[in-house]
Write a structure and sequence with these properties.
Elements lengths: L1 H19 L4 H22 L4 H26 L3 H23 L4 H22 L7 H21 L2 H22 L8 E6 L2 E8 L2 H13 L5 E4 L2 E2 L2
Parallel strand pairs: 2-3, 2-4
Antiparallel strand pairs: 1-2
Helix pairs in contact: 2-3, 3-4, 3-7, 4-5, 4-6, 5-6
């Protein structure tokens, strides 16, 4: 009788574990294909930017793909091995993005930024090794947290680093707005941001383009002021 009870309990436990795992290969493949397609489209849009802004844009596209793949794994293929693999991929992508953002800095701010990114990456990877007793919901929460820790920690370590990273994002957004506008030729305008103040320079063919560049910069979230030294070609 005890033997039968033990067998029954073991079968019930195995059934519960199997139920907790979701494996839908067709839905999983479709979700991963969408993530790949979205990544390629986002990467193509990055070509409109130049310099480090383009590099940051590409890394952001990789992070978005890694997050989408993790969501697909959690929903349709949440075996322990696949979840761990997806979480590691997201942590690595977040780390690459954080390092790329540091490249717009210099001196001690850049060093601090890279050290913070490395430290946050280690923390994110450590959280990947979730104990087997964790529930699926807990794994999902930890995965999302691991995915955001890298960038968040890099921003929060010091005030100087936070400001520099914020300025980098503003510069990237301003350049993106200019690249998307039919009137402004993004290559004609140089954009630099310091403590929320956007400084525009360069040579453009018309006053209308110069005015439009200023207008686009002012609309970007986080911009405190716009200073323009753009000159019209004669």
């Amino acid at each position: 009788m005890k033997k039968i009870l033990c067998i029954s309990l073991a079968a019930l436990f195995s059934s519960s574990v199997a139920f907790a795992q979701t494996v839908d290969n067709n839905a999983y493949k479709a979700a991963k294909d969408r993530a790949e397609s979205d990544y390629k489209a986002a990467k193509d849009r990055c070509k409109e930017l130049k310099g480090n802004a383009e590099d940051v844009c590409k890394e952001e596209a990789k992070v978005a793909q890694a997050r989408a793949e993790l969501d697909a794994t959690m929903q349709h293929h949440n075996t322990a091995k696949d979840v761990e693999k997806s979480r590691r991929k997201l942590a690595d992508a977040e780390y690459d993005l954080a390092k790329e953002r540091c490249d717009d800095m210099s001196g001690s701010a850049k060093s601090a930024c890279k050290n913070d990114a490395k430290s946050a990456h280690k923390t994110a990877l450590a959280s990947v090794n979730t104990p087997a007793t964790s529930t699926t919901a807990a794994i999902a929460q930890d995965a999302r947290q691991a995915g955001t820790n890298v960038a968040d920690t890099a921003r929060e370590k010091t005030a100087d680093t936070r400001t520099a990273m914020s300025d980098t994002m503003i510069t990237t957004k301003v350049k993106a707005e200019m690249a998307a506008d039919p009137l402004v030729k993004a290559m004609d305008v140089h954009v630099e941001t310091q403590k929320g103040i956007v400084m525009l320079s360069g040579f453009v063919p018309s006053k209308a383009e110069a005015d439009k560049a200023v207008e686009l910069a002012r609309k970007v979230e986080g911009v405190q002021e716009v200073k323009s030294s753009i000159q019209v070609k004669k």
